Amino acid sequence: MMRRSPFRYFKTSPEIIRLAVMLYVRFPLSLRNVEDLLHERGIDVSHETVRYWWHRFGPMFAAEIRRRRIEGMRSSHWRWHLDETFVKINGEMHYLWRAADHEGEVLESFVTKRRDRKAALKFLRKAMRKHGQPEVIVTDRLRSYGAALKEIGAGDRQDTGRWLNNRAENSHLPFRRRERAMLRFRRMRSLQKFAAVHSSVYNHFNQERSLYSRDIFKTNRTVALAEWRGLCAA
Predict the structure, then answer these.
(1) Residue 76 has pLDDT above 80, yes or no
(2) CATH placement of domain 79-189
């Protein structure tokens, strides 16, 4: 059975929609910045249209990216790095948990109001349900991790150290840049939605350019862009 195109009721071409969503999610730009960039390219849309496109198609693009990566066995079961960061929503403190593999690819993002054992356990179960169980789990010295890992029978896999978890801490930096551009979040639900989409888009375009030659980096970047332009194609 042929899959219906998700763009079938839109007058704007899928290429423009994909470009607008990529600009907004991938780079630290506001909605009005994206509107101005599209206008320079002869595309006349309002920032509210960009907002609607991001809400409608962002999760759809992220889901297809995750599906392709799982089918390609690109998720690592060797070493995971877990960390949490503070995020304010209307002046109230929340916590964004993040799991990254040894190459810096973000596996899972999860938002909670607390960072106790119950929250850590929920985060770990969600990550392991999607990606399996790793051989080593690197964390900081937050006791919630140890308590949650013992409950699921993975306490012997935990590894802690002063600089061992830099991979997870560095994975927060791209999100922090986006957070500043968006002037923070108003709802916990919108934070969870954007964090999940942003992590998938970041994984897709993250080429770790410092590890490759210029020619290989350009080839990988071209392939990633070509794959993006084919997302959700009918």
Answers:
(1) no
(2) 3.30.420.10
The closest alpha carbon to 181, from 58, 61, 25, 76, belongs to 25
pTM score, two decimals?
Answer: 0.86
Place of tokens 């907002």: 51
d(CA 15, CA 219): 21
**DSSP alpha helix (H) spans, 153-233:** 166-170, 173-181, 188-205, 214-229
Residues contacting 200, CB < 8 A, separation 6+: 61, 62, 63, 65, 66, 106
Total count of residues recorded for the chain = 234
pLDDT of 75: 56
Residues in contact with 64: Cβ distance below 8 Å, sequence separation at least 6, in sequence order = 231, 232
Residues of the chain with pLDDT > 90, as a percent, come to: 56
In whole angstroms, give the CA distance from residue 93 to residue 137. Answer: 26
* Residues 6/60, Cβ–Cβ less than 8 Å: yes
Average pLDDT, integer, range 30-44: 95
Average pLDDT, the chain: 88
| Domain edges within the chain | 14-72+207-228, 79-189
